[in-house]
């Protein structure tokens, strides 16, 4: 009996200590507690490493590219000259190509992702949603280089034989629009790169769209159905406006991914150093130029430094796009 | 046509277009697989697995990829798990954790070729040599953010009451995390690691200027090191058709491996709904 009384007094003291914020000496003795500071330090250290990593990427790329920027000045960013023989370098063509292919990819991927998300959330029978959704996600798992080789083996012949000739034939005589469809039907070029990039980002955008659209309260949708809306009208006028901030964010994420894709683009863009308004013209992106030329640019050469400066530019562009995307997704889903 | 009929037919039209888009993306996946099988399967002979690259096979590239991905996992996995644990447990709600989470999301989608450039500047330039170590570090940087993200997501799903029960028994924090939260979330954490592994295995861009590639048999991580993606990239640009078909055999192998890993983790390890 006394033991129980004793222990209850102990408990009372311990509780009182906890309430005061200072555990009694007995309560403080937890076996193994000595390892806690080490464990916590490891948790903080590993997290800090992520911040250090991003900072070092920025610093090393900036530092590596600085001599090129110092040589050519800010005009490096809009100069369209890229000549390894005369050692004159500018990023204009690559920045144009990166943004052009990225926007083309988005123009194709956005309506398709909306359609697929509509299909997966409203149209498809419930039992087939998971397998179909998973199959589309598998597209995101296919390595970039495989997309490039598939592009060369399948998409380039398709474009050259069946898509480009009729488009050129239809549009070449129309003023202004004709510029978009000028050039030889080689199958290579901006549009081919844009199409392949679109298939690479569709799974990412779709997955986020589905998640956002599934979070729309059923009550909202049901009240729209209640006043006689069709399925599409509910999607268009209730679900999409409800999630619009996050939807824009998800789209930006897809754009950010498309900007940095390397291998797939390198295989199909044609790798030419020129700016053209035509969808069929060869061009190059920042990532494809780095992949193609870096092996030929010895460390310390001006060409090597210019490529590092290109890398720095790509990092800054992607950082801004991804940061905006993330903020929109976070505020939109809260 | 009256208004209702018009609205109805527009609804059918949009449903048809949306279904069409879903079918197109499934067809794209099927077309990729068909291209890989039709061009890769004929070249997939036993020579691929027995000979090195300079001798018409891919043995050294396959082994090289496995070695580098394994090392990358040993570096990136534990760091990723610890950082993910920090975000879900110790740092919940702090400014520092918000910053880490934000930067990790950026790293998750950062262009992989820039990871290659970074490791080139950090390791290849100072050591003056392409190396397997540099390739493994680049892949570790690819793996890490994926593991951080999935670990955090999976740990936040573990009920708080489970942790409180462990703390109430007098367990120190590390014991609660190791023996209770990690154990409760281990399927999810393993899923994340396997998906990260699948992603790293197919990456080519970060290896181009770090491990570079090597046509001969080597296990020397301090020198240029072979890998399957780099081998495919090199062979695919070769003018000789028989070299290109070896590239397709390699492409088939790597895609089947990566997709199988994805399907297995998603189907077998996925939480039952």
Topology of helices and strands:
The complex is a heterodimer of chains A (334) and B (273).
Chain A: H1 2-20, H2 25-28, H3 36-72, E1 82-83, E2 88-89, H4 92-123, H5 126-141, H6 144-171, H7 177-180, H8 190-214, H9 218-226, H10 231-242, H11 244-260, H12 263-268, H13 286-293, H14 302-333
Helix pairs in contact in A: 3-14, 4-8, 4-11, 5-8, 6-8, 8-11, 9-10, 11-14, 13-14
Chain B: H1 3-40, H2 46-50, H3 59-90, H4 95-109, H5 112-127, H6 132-156, H7 160-168, H8 173-184, H9 186-202, H10 228-236, H11 241-268
Helix pairs in contact in B: 1-11, 3-6, 3-9, 3-10, 4-6, 5-6, 6-9, 7-8, 9-11, 10-11
Describe this structure as you would to a colleague.
- The complex is a heterodimer of chains A (334) and B (273).
- Chain A is an all-alpha fold.
- Chain A folds into 2 domains: 30 residues; 267 residues, MetI-like (MetI-like fold, Orthogonal Bundle), CATH 1.10.3720.10.
- Chain A is built from 14 helices and 2 strands.
- In chain A, a hairpin with a 4-residue loop joins strand 1 and strand 2.
- The radius of gyration of chain A is 28 Å and the shape is flat.
- Chain A starts with a helix and ends with a helix.
- The N terminus of chain A is likely disordered.
- Chain B folds into 2 domains: 39 residues; 225 residues, MetI-like fold (Orthogonal Bundle), CATH 1.10.3720.10.
- In chain B, helix 3 packs across helix 9 and helix 4 packs across helix 6.
- The longest helix of chain B is centred in the first third of the chain and has 38 residues.
- Chain B is globular, with a radius of gyration of 23 Å.
- Chains A and B meet through helix 3, helix 4, helix 5, helix 6 and helix 8 of A and helix 1, helix 3, helix 4, helix 5 and helix 6 of B.
């Amino acid at each position: 009996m006394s033991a129980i009384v004793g222990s209850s007094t102990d408990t009372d003291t311990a509780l009182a200590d906890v309430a005061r914020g200072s555990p009694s000496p007995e309560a403080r003795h937890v076996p193994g507690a000595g390892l806690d500071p080490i464990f916590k330090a490891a948790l903080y250290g590993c997290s800090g490493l992520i911040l250090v990593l991003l900072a070092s990427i920025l610093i090393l790329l900036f530092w590596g590219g600085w001599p090129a920027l110092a040589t050519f000045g800010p005009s490096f960013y809009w100069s369209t000259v890229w000549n390894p023989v005369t050692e004159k370098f500018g990023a204009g063509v690559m920045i144009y190509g990166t943004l052009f292919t990225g926007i083309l990819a988005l123009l194709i991927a956005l309506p398709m992702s909306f359609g697929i998300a509509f299909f997966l959330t409203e149209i498809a029978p419930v039992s087939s949603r998971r397998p179909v959704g998973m199959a589309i996600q598998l597209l995101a798992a296919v390595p970039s280089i495989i997309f490039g080789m598939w592009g060369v083996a399948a998409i380039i012949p398709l474009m050259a034989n069946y898509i480009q000739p009729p488009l050129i034939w239809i549009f070449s005589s129309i003023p202004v629009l004709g510029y978009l469809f000028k050039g030889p039907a080689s199958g290579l070029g901006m549009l081919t790169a844009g199409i392949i990039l679109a298939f690479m980002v569709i799974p990412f955008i779709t997955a986020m769209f589905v998640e956002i659209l599934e979070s729309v309260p059923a009550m909202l949708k049901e009240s729209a159905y209640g006043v006689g809306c069709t399925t599409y009208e509910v999607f268009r006028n209730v679900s999409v406006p409800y999630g619009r901030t996050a939807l824009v964010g998800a789209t930006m994420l897809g754009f950010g991914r498309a900007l940095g894709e390397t291998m797939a683009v390198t295989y199909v863009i044609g790798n030419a150093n020129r700016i053209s308004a035509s969808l069929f013209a060869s061009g190059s992106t920042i990532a494809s130029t780095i992949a193609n030329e870096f092996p030929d640019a010895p460390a310390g050469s001006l060409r090597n430094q210019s490529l590092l400066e290109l890398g720095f530019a790509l990092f800054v562009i992607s950082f801004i796009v991804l940061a905006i995307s993330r903020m929109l997704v976070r505020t939109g889903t809260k | 046509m009256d208004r209702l009929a018009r609205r109805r037919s527009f609804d059918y039209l949009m449903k048809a277009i949306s279904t069409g888009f879903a079918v197109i993306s499934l067809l794209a996946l099927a077309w990729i697989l068909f291209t890989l099988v039709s061009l890769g399967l004929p070249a997939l002979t036993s020579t691929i697995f027995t000979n090195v690259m300079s001798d018409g096979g891919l043995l050294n590239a396959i082994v090289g990829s496995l070695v580098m991905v394994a090392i990358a996992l040993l570096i990136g996995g534990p760091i990723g798990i610890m950082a993910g644990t920090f975000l879900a447990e110790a740092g919940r709600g702090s400014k520092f954790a918000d910053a880490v989470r934000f930067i990790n999301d950026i790293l998750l989608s950062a262009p992989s070729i820039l990871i290659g450039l970074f490791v080139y500047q950090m390791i290849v330039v100072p050591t003056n040599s392409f190396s397997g170590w540099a390739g493994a570090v680049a892949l570790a940087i690819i793996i890490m953010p994926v593991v951080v993200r999935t670990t955090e997501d999976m740990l936040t799903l573990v009920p708080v009451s489970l942790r409180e029960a462990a703390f109430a028994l007098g367990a120190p924090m590390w014991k609660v995390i190791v023996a209770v939260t990690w154990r409760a979330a281990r399927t999810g954490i393993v899923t994340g690691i396997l998906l990260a592994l699948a992603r790293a295995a197919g990456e080519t861009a970060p290896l181009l200027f770090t491990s570079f590639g090597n046509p001969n048999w080597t296990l020397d991580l301090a020198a240029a090191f072979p890998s399957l993606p780099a081998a495919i990239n090199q062979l695919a640009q070769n003018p000789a058709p028989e070299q290109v078909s070896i590239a397709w055999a390699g492409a088939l192998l790597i895609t089947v491996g990566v997709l199988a890993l994805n399907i297995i983790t998603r189907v077998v390890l996925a939480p039952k709904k």
